[in-house]
Design a protein that fits this description.
By secondary structure, the protein is an all-beta fold. It folds into two domains: 2-120, Immunoglobulin-like, CATH 2.60.40; 128-222, Sandwich (Immunoglobulin-like). Helices cover 0% and strands 50% of the residues. It is built from no helices and 22 strands. The protein has strands spanning 2-5, 9-14, 17-22, 33-36, 41-43, 47-49, 51-54, 62-63, 72-75, 81-83, 88-91, 100-108, 111-120, 128-132, 136-138, 142-150, 156-158, 166-171, 182-184, 189-192, 201-210, 213-222. The strands form six sheets. Strands 14, 16, 17, 19 and 20 form a five-stranded antiparallel sheet that branches. It has a four-stranded mixed sheet with strand order 5-13-12-9, with no helix packed on it. A hairpin with a 3-residue loop joins strand 1 (2-5) and strand 2 (9-14). The protein is globular and about 55 Å long.
């Protein structure tokens, strides 16, 4: 992915798709997709569902929320705001700040739109606890993930396997879900790519969902072995 930047906009390009993120330019927003959300302020751990529709010059709006319609979701800060292929968006952090801002961009063929969110901290823990045998890996290595849901009292239920309904998405810094650096098997085994190409290291967010519950973990992949902190 490449990007172009000027004083009022950032354009992210991946293949034939260009997504425009406008930051305060009046009269220059030519987006043709309507992107709506129940609210645009999210605390860490909160999820909302976006609604995307085409704005035709006449006639009724056409719903384009589903990935089956060809819609792709991007973010300006995938380490803090996670877009899922079905249009759900989850805040996973604020970079240690009291408030952070991030944009979700939406592309569908030649059409595009965007929506901005304010991100706020939360004292609540994620409903899913995600751990890994190790979080710092050399390219080509694997590590076993484990996912637990807390139950009343001290009990925990393991939900690592895909058969329990758990789904994994990996975000290696490309603005959207991409398994090209870390791939997660149905048993929760995380396998890293054998070569990082021109990169010396990559930081990958593994986002986990089971029903309405979410969790996440950060993995670092490098050319050489990292020391666990």
């Amino acid at each position: 992915m490449t990007y172009l930047k000027d004083s009022c906009a950032t354009i992210f390009r991946t293949g034939l798709i260009a997504v425009l993120f406008v930051s305060g330019c009046i009269g220059e927003d030519e987006t043709d997709l309507r992107v709506a959300a129940p609210r645009t302020t999210l605390h860490v751990g909160e999820t909302i569902q976006l609604e995307v529709s085409e704005k035709p010059p006449d006639g009724s709006p056409r719903d384009l929320t589903s990935a089956d319609s060809g819609t792709i979701y991007y973010t300006t800060a995938e380490s803090r705001l996670i877009p899922e292929p079905d249009g759900r968006v989850t805040c996973i952090g604020t970079d240690g700040k009291e408030q952070e801002s991030a944009v979700i961009g939406v592309g569908n063929g030649p059409h595009h739109g965007h929506i901005r969110f304010e991100l706020l901290p939360s004292s609540a823990k994620p409903l899913l606890e995600v751990s890994a045998g190790k979080t710092r890996l050399r390219a080509g290595e694997t590590t076993q993930l484990r996912v637990f849901a807390s139950q009343p009292g001290s009990a925990r239920t393991e939900l690592t396997a895909a058969s329990t309904g758990t789904r994994y998405l990996t975000f290696p810094g490309h603005g959207r879900a991409d398994p090209s650096v870390v791939r997660i098997s149905d048993s929760g085994l995380a396998s890293t790519v054998s070569s990082l190409g021109r990169y010396n290291h990559r930081t990958v967010i593994v986002f986990v969902r089971n029903g309405e519950s979410t969790g996440w973990i950060e993995l670092k992949v490098g050319r050489v072995t990292f020391k666990e902190s």
